[in-house]
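ok, trying the design again with the full structure, not the truncated one.
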């Protein structure tokens, strides 16, 4: 089965000084880079999704320092980058067409924010016919909310997604894996 690694919205805005940082961000980046290494070793296409806000003053607006993909990612020039303007990486982007052109059957997800763009894209992928997807535990994150902490948000969403929209896999299965 042909797979693709999709990394959603790991952008500088979540790491800027004075801004809230993603929960467990050092482990997050380490695990995402482990997935990138695994993908390169196994010839799995890597797709970076980059949120682009229409408000030119927003941290995620095109050209703002926060809009750039995070500098700590093991990104290479040949990696695909797809910009999106909504929480759904499929909506009015080239993602669906690109996946079809590459004959991708399974998506492996990582990224941010758990309850926003990751949640919307995971559910949209299922609606687009991708029913055997994986989410890597500790390779996605969010910020504390007004009602729940980041770990509570993550736990809640993983309990909803698992065995429905994705299978949650531990990172260990992608470390030193061929």
């Amino acid at each position: 089965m042909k797979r693709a690694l999709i990394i959603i919205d790991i952008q500088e805005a979540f790491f800027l000084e004075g801004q809230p940082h993603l929960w467990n961000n050092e482990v997050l980046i380490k695990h995402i880079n482990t997935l990138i290494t695994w993908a390169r070793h196994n010839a799995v296409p890597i797709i970076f999704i980059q949120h682009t806000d229409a408000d030119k003053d927003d941290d995620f607006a095109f050209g703002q320092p926060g809009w750039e993909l995070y500098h700590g990612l093991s990104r290479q020039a040949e990696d695909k980058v797809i910009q999106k303007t909504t929480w759904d990486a499929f909506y009015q982007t080239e993602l669906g067409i690109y996946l079809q052109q590459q004959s991708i059957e399974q998506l492996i997800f990582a990224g941010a924010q758990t309850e926003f763009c990751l949640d919307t894209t995971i559910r949209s992928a299922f609606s687009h016919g991708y029913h055997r997807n994986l989410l890597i535990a500790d390779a996605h994150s969010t910020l504390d909310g007004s009602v729940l902490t980041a770990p509570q948000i993550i736990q809640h969403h993983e309990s909803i997604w698992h065995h429905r929209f994705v299978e949650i896999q531990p990172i260990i299965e992608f470390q030193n894996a061929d």
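Keeping the full-length input from now on. The first helix runs from residue 25 to 41.
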